[in-house]
Amino acid sequence: MKYENVRLTEAVRRIRMIFVVGVIAACVLYGGKIPAFAEDTQEQYDSSQSSYGQLLEQEGDTSGILQFGGQIIEDEASDSSEASLAAANSKKYESAIVGAVEKFSPRLNVKSWGLTTRNVANVVTTAMNAHPEVVYVARYSYLYDQTTGKVVYLKFSYKPNARTEKKQLDAAIAEVNKQINTKNMKPAEIVLAYHEFLTSTVAYDTSGAKEFDPTTGRDHMYDMYGVLVKRSSVCQGYAETMWYFLRKAGVPCGVATSQYVNHAWNVVNIGGKWYHVDATWDDPASDIPGRSMHDYFLVSFDTLNSKTKAASSDYYLGRYDTKVGNVWKGTYSNATDKRYEKGQFWNGVEKVIFYRKGYWYSIKQGSQSSYYQINKYSFTNGVNTTIFTGQDEWLDTDGTALNKQYGTMFLAQEKLYFCTSRYVAWIDLEVNERKAWAIYDIRQKYVSGVNIYGMGYYGNDVVIWVSDTPSCTRKDAYYLGACMSHKWQAGEVTKQPTFTSQGSQKYKCSNCGYTKNVTLDKLKLATVTVKTKNTGKGISLTWNTDSRATGYKVYRRTGKGAYRLIKTVKGSSVRSMVDRSVVGGKTYTYRVSAYNSYTKGGSKAKSQYYIGCTTARAKNTSQGVRVSWKKTKGAAGYKIYKKTGSGRFKCVKVVKAKTRTYLDRRVKSGTKYTYFVKPYKGKTAGTYKKASVKYR
User: Fold this and answer.
1) Using one digit for the tens of pLDDT, what is the confidence trace for 365-379?
2) Which DSSP string corresponds to 302-328?
């Protein structure tokens, strides 16, 4: 079975103190107190912290850290105030601890945290379990004041290849994120996606527990590195990886452990109810490519417990001592709901389920043992559709029927591979999902009774297993040769699209030779974007052109009214017109569409508030130059500009809409002045005509 746990021995927990003859002698001089030396495992605190006594170093307790093979444990601090302090600041502590570790810092000053020897393990455990991607810490210890018990420093030791392993794991996580896109997936789908990933790509590590090494730390069989890089792990690795990705995807989750069963798995919350998910026990220990059970997927605790008892007489108590911790988002309550245990498309499926473009593809036994069926399911409408059926018998070496379907599937992009006892075939999901092509026939080499029993990932390879027994204790292995990433050559247009019919373009993969035909849309005229501008004669319109157009249709609406065609402009190169039938103070919205005898193009609307032209008049008076104008419709005010001689115009006055004159007293005899009055409303301006006068 798949369960591993590592407990610290008393030898690892003990306080490490180094004594030498000189130190013992010094004990007398210091009245029985033994000072710590920076070079030893005890360290002298610096002068800024002289209020502390001598510091002792103690190995950190890792029995609750999942990456170290630990299990969920309860807080052992007997002082409730200390436990409360640790809980209240857990996020702050988590950020600081993980931040230091990610920088490979050897030591972290925690003087101000209020940590003690009674709660420090809980704080470090909480931080580490919240970041299962941190897999490169070999061990940790802490320095504490022997008088007060307060922890001053956390110390971290790292695996020899820590930086390299961090980069490798980061790359592996990025690859998973590339393969599994949970956008638009429902919560149950997201959980299923990562369940299938784990059961199809990871082999359970049956090598046995490894002894703790103070230099290299725990073996990677307990963590995400083992799962994603080495593709081999025990239950803690499965549970941590599931938890990590579910949290990233926003699904409330936690980790459950049982010391009696010596095992770790997950809990998830969907629709406000908790469920258990055990990807490890759904992944047969004797790893056979393509096998994935769903007996422990989204089940209640009662179901989980009863299945555990039935699994082995060694577990007759079930998972009675289950503890749930590391809960993200919410508080775990007993999982009692059983809605996913019946009537779901995965119920009874014993092979990996694959996702593509909104559908989940599965293979299972039909109504009779000699029949199989391939189904696709949509979470959107809840419909499970059979797309392909077949008949096949798996025979034993003596010719008797095994009365069970062992067919397996593997999805490589658009190709859905599946196997019968003798054939490997594939369905092109892009072309016809109800037609299959056989590509391998093992009867060319093997006699009846030797069958295909596995197909899928084994390590980083996609393989086919041929054996004379379903357990595959004896087997021959072959590469499937599936193309996992197409490299498309430049496309060849096989049919040119027109304005009335679609075209097509053919692409070929240079890796595998697969070809695909892509439909080219009918030709479309360009979308026309119109620009507007107020002029003295009306609103000027300009737009982009399309040489394939016969002309352009100009549509206008006034205010919030309906659009109406105001002009048809012929000629593909014509790009402007002036709408003279406008009235100041109104907003007009325009659309211009290119057209020809086949179609009409799209358009983007543009609105324009119209303000007419203001004509200025300038007249000498004894008091200065008087500028006057008539009312301009749509104007909320006027800006009066003045230029002296050949100088530059400057705004000299802004007046309200009711004002019609302006007296400029700042003039000199014999000097020429030019004026214009700009009508405006907000940021919209009308046009104007200038007036000049030589002051006498």
Assistant:
1) 999 999 999 999 999
2) HHHHHHHHHH-GGGTTTTTT-EEEEEE
